[in-house]
Amino acid sequence: MGEIRLRVPPQLQLFLKPDTRAHEVRVASDTTSTVGHVIESVGVPLTEVETIKVGGARASPSTYAHGGMLVELRPVMRPQAIPEHTQGFLLDVHLGTLARRMRLLGIDSAYRNDAADDELVDEANAERRILLTRDRRLLMRRVLWCGAHVRGDRPDAQLADVIDRFAPPLAPWTRCTACNGALAPVRKDEVAHLLEPGTRHSYTNFAQCRACGKVYWRGAHSPTLESIVARAALDGPTG
Q: Among 134, 153, 209, 227, which has the highest number of CB atoms less than 10 A from its own CB?
């Protein structure tokens, strides 16, 4: 049957099994596989591949694969253009902290901690949201319209990765970190009944979520949040 030689650049080798991480991977060919199937069989989601070349010529994932074929991969270029009419992002259940940080920066980021995989794919497709996940199998769902693998084990690295990949416009302090709703300035007397006595006494400027009603002010936690915003501003554009 022969073998297919798959050349994987360093940026994509993290998806390979540790014992197969190399510039070139060999895969046994069969009579039914496409190039896309071969790429995903070694663990690389097609969402992370910009171009595929077969024998030096650009090819489609649906190209028939056969023994002796040389397949070369190129990773997604950064920043990646956000598809037209995209609503925003949708994060899987394991990325709750990242979702809150993206909302802090004003990035439209849908999230709930009880969504099943099928629900995530359906919601991403229905609302035209880019699905962000570290689950490569989720990204390999054929029906998923657009997704991306989030690199990094910690929220700060994950946030930097999303900003580096998509360069989304940032509008800090404009979204509710709890529900993703839009924030609007509000007079202190309008929300005084929702505040603790110490907060009413110490602060004068407030904003309220138009969706869930949560009230925000620059409290003791502000320096930590401001440092997140400052780092993000260095990683990507604002506007």
A: 209
Which residues, 6+ apart, have CB-to-CB distance to 45 below 8 Å?
15, 136, 139, 140, 147, 149
Instruction: Give 155-213 pLDDT, tens digit per residue.
Output: 999 999 999 999 999 999 999 999 999 999 999 999 999 999 999 999 999 999 999 99
**Helix residue spans in the chain (DSSP H):** 35-41, 96-104, 117-127, 136-139, 155-166, 188-191, 197-202, 222-235
**pTM for the complete prediction?**
0.92
C-alpha dihedral (68, 74, 102, 184), degrees to nearest 10: -120
